[in-house]
Amino acid sequence: MGVVSAIGNSVAENWDALIRNKSGVSTARFVDSKHIDNFLFGEVNLSNDELKGLLGLVADSNYARTTLLALLAVNEAILSAQISTAEIDAIIMGCTVSSMCETRKLYENAQGIDNKSMLYDRYDIGSVAMEISEVIGHIPFHNTINTACSSSANAIMQGVMMIKSGKATKILVGGADALSKYTINGFNSMMLLSEGRCTPFSDDKHGINLGEGAGFLILEGEENMSLDKTPLAEIIGFGNANDSYHATSTSPEAIGPIKAMHTAINYAGIAPSQIDYINAHGTGTENNDETELKAIQHIFKPVPLFSSTKPYTGHTLGAAGSIEAIFSVLMMLNNVAIGNQINENNPTENLTSIEINRILSNSFGFGGNCTSLLFQKIRTGN
Amino acid sequence: MKFYLNHSSCISPQQSFEGIFPREVNLNQTAHHILAIEPDYKPFLPLNLLRRMGKISRMGLTTGLKVIQDSQIEFDAIISGSAYGSNEESFKFLDQIYKYDEGPMTPTNFTQSTTNVVSAQLGLMTKNYCYNSTNSQKAHSFENSLLEGMLLLENNISKHILVGAVDEISQYTFNLFGLLDWVRTDNVTPEKAIQQKGKGFVPGEGSAFFHLSSERECHESVCIELLKTYVGPYQLQIKEDLRQLEYEPDLILSPLNGDTDNDNTVNELLAHFEDVPQIHFKKYFGDSPTVSALSIWLGQQLLNPENTHFEGINWVKPLRSILIFNKFETGQSSLIVLSKS
After folding, report:
1. Which among A179, A93, A172 has a CA at the least distance from the CA of A128?
2. B95, B110, B172 member nearest A189 (Cβ)
3. Does position B27 have pLDDT exceeding 50, yes or no?
4. Which of A149, A206, B10, B48 has the fewest Cβ atoms within 10 angstroms?
């Protein structure tokens, strides 16, 4: 696993921030937008030049921030899985912004103005996967899913299906998105941005903190794993459904979220009561949180512990599903549930030590795209 | 497991939506690109929605809805592919950002600009709560969508899949292609371009949707015998795979587009099949990253015997299998074999 987000540039840094209750949501420094004065964002604490330095790329290399963030997480994932790049037979990722984070360059190029950006064929969504393959070594299959905020959860799901069908053995799955003037103004035009830190599921919800980052995981089929390797977790269920209610808001009946969670639980063949924790989508908007809560209450009786990690990272859009999948695995490995109420006066309030054997991770997006992933702890001694 | 394409629908620079078979390209459409012939959308799309819809939504939704209508089946997965999504809407929103210096603006262009708009709207308009996905991987956006559908069938997650692809030529895509020096600027039709090689291709646009399943569902059903995608330095692998095809196809749909380099590569790769007749499908559709969806629609038409009188080629026997080779400037290639078996 590899992750970069507003709370750190590695899995260890992210976990450390989560258990210390340190949020990365604050005033943005790098993204080019007037709105950094009005709203708080979950910006990765590295400039593009610093990212290039960490990646060993020359300063004038032409990759946009989304790709730089992705590469940092990809490198960590490959290193920690102890595999070589040559063994990876597919990359499947979620992305919604791609090189559009270079918004001004795109605006000029789209009008035919040659600003020497050299990104002319790099603004489309599929470019990041191609660039990752370019940098780390040739990967024979690339795919990118754009189902808005559930993109990288769907990428993980598609990776699992590829492995189950025998079409690949080791897959790099994940997602990446950088903050951009485009998305900031998009969410602002819908009046969804928050001036303070988002507070999912609280009485005082006031919107989203847009964030950025990347999360990547190596998926391997059990049959193909070497015996001396212990996997971090098992994916035992997944569900994709559509809410089919409205382009940008979820239905009051929570049809899509209920169906996605149900499908994942049924696929795993377990009872809802066997799920110990739900890592919710929890964006901090009234619409999402009320619908999601309703769906959770519909399926789970009693409702297990649940929370959202978005107050720490912000909403990382196309990267959210995979970053939160990684956080889910970490919570399971450590038997620690991370709460969503950030309270700096009481930094331990957010931690709950519980035995977590199974965790459900939700990702819902514009267009009604709802996906739930179900992870299970690896039993040692088997 | 076998995979079949059943009912299908296509909007393209041809009158494909009306089922009129491609004969000749409309010569009026030679402003360095050829636009789709858009059908009367009113039977498919409510006027109030239509007015606000971008072109990829109009084309994608209508071809998708037509397949839903014709198949009379409850689909349990909706998957679409698009390399560029709604460029037109994205640019309108960008324009607002800079025009109003990030001031207050209307969200319509933003919400319409998301790549998943076609799959999402197809779900919304038909109140379908099933699996819903959108792939955006350059010139593999359609192939990967088809693959995703096959994965759903193989994993027993879905049985009837609505799968398709759509891309539009907006002024902005066209400008970006121009900066890359990808466009033929001598104002020729795609057909002329292929005859008189030069630099670049003639961009086109369109949408095609299919009902994919593991059973033959209608008279027009064709079987997908092979689906292979290639990225990067793929030429040796394609050569090898072509050599190893189990049988010789009766026809090849080949991706000549008039660009000298492209056409030389294609001809070299297909040299192995010099006795097999070829149709250069890009002369009907122009070139686009998801033109493979249109070419598969064409392949399906050709495999249905009532359509095999085409272009003065007299088939000595009914076509049984067609090899569709696609290749686009962004570096992706694919091989697809369709059969009537």
Report:
1. A93
2. B110
3. no
4. B48
User: Which spans in chain B are helix H?
Assistant: 47-52, 55-71, 87-99, 108-112, 117-125, 141-154, 171-179, 190-195, 235-243, 260-269, 282-285, 291-302
Note the ipTM here.
Answer: 0.96
What tens digit of pLDDT does each residue of B228-280 get?
Answer: 999 977 889 999 999 888 788 999 999 999 999 999 999 999 998 989 999 99
Nearest-angstrom CA–CA distance, A86 and A70: 18
How does pLDDT run across B93-102, given as a tens digit for each residue?
Answer: 999 999 999 9
∠ CA(B86), CA(B89), CA(B92), 5° rounding? 150
Contacts of B114 in chain A (CB under 8 A): 96, 146, 148, 366-367
Contact A317, A148 (CB under 8 A): yes
Whether residue A302 has a cis bond before it, omega within 30° of 0: yes
| pLDDT score recorded for residue B258 | 97
Residue A262 is a catalytic residue: no
Render pLDDT for A138-175 as a digit per residue (tens, 0 to 9): 999 999 999 999 999 999 999 999 999 999 999 999 99
Mean pLDDT, chain B, as a whole number? Answer: 92
Q: What pLDDT is attached to residue B315?
A: 63
Residue B174's Cβ-side half-sphere holds a number of Cα atoms within 13 Å equal to 17
Instruction: Determine which of A106, A113, A125, A248 to mutate to test the interface with B (most B C-beta atoms within 10 Å).
Output: A125
The two most distant CA atoms of chain B are separated, in Å, by 66
> What are the tokens at A239?
């569900």
Among all residues of chain B, which has the CA nearest to that of A187?
Answer: B107
Residue A248's SS3 state is coil
Q: Is B219 helix (H, G, I), strand (E, B) or coil?
A: coil
